[in-house]
Amino acid sequence: MIKLISANSCKEMIEAGCQLVENFFGHDKVLELVNNVTDFWSMIEDIPNIDTTDKGTQYSLKLRTIAAKTSGILQKLFVTLLIVCPRSITTERVISHYNQTNHKISLLEETINCLYVSMNGVGTAHYDPQPAVIEFKKKRRKTLS
Q1: What percent of the chain is predicted at pLDDT more than 90?
Q2: Neighbours of 50 (CB within 10 A)
Q3: pLDDT tens per residue, range 74-109
Q4: Could you write out the three-class secondary structure of 84-118?
Q5: Is-contact 65 47, C-beta < 8 A?
Q6: Whole-prediction pTM value?
Q7: b or e along 105-117 (b: 16 or more beta carbons within 10 Å of the residue's beta carbon)?
Q8: Contact 33, 73 (CB under 8 A)
Q9: Highest mean pLDDT among 59-63, 111-115, 121-125, 132-136
């Protein structure tokens, strides 16, 4: 995975990704990977490395960025790598990030949640709950009647 993320050329990314694609999706998808990498390489190589002392955060952010800018089997591969989280990497990343911030004094649940959101995605400030509430009300009416 690290070879795939830190590839410096189209060839390196193809070599690193072929075995992963074959393992995850089958041998017939390898050609599609080659085509996707060559199509998207100009966008991928323009993605800068994020300067951070936490390598897990750096790799995660680069994975997310590449997944957002690609499509096809290449995007599926990067999304799969984001989903597959061996051992306790997510927890360790949050703790590592916590140790590098000014919140070391506080172990409040609110602080940990804020750090977790800052490491793993966007907050809920822009989330519109209205569609979910409407759907919930529709289902509830059906069960009550």
Answers
A1: 15
A2: 13
A3: 988 988 887 775 555 666 666 666 666 565 555 666
A4: CCCCCHHHHHHHHHHHCCCCCCCCCHHHHHHHHHH
A5: yes
A6: 0.56
A7: eeeeeeeeeebbe
A8: yes
A9: 132-136
Which of 105, 121, 81 has the alpha carbon at shortest distance from 113? 121
pLDDT at 30: 92
Look up tokens 């993605």; give the residue. 47
* Amino acid letter, 51: D
Given a cut of 80, whether residue 127 has pLDDT beyond it is no
Amino acid at 138: K
Per-residue 3-state assignment (H helix, E strand, C coil) for the chain: CHHHHCCCCHHHHHHHHHHHHHHHHCHHHHHHHHHHHHHHHHHHHCCCCCCCCCHHHHHHHHHHHHHHHCCHHHHHHHHHHHHCCCCCHHHHHHHHHHHCCCCCCCCCHHHHHHHHHHHHCCCCCCCCCHHHHHHHHHHHHHHHC
Give the length of the chain.
Answer: 145
Count the neighbouring beta carbons within 10 Å of the beta carbon of residue 57: 19
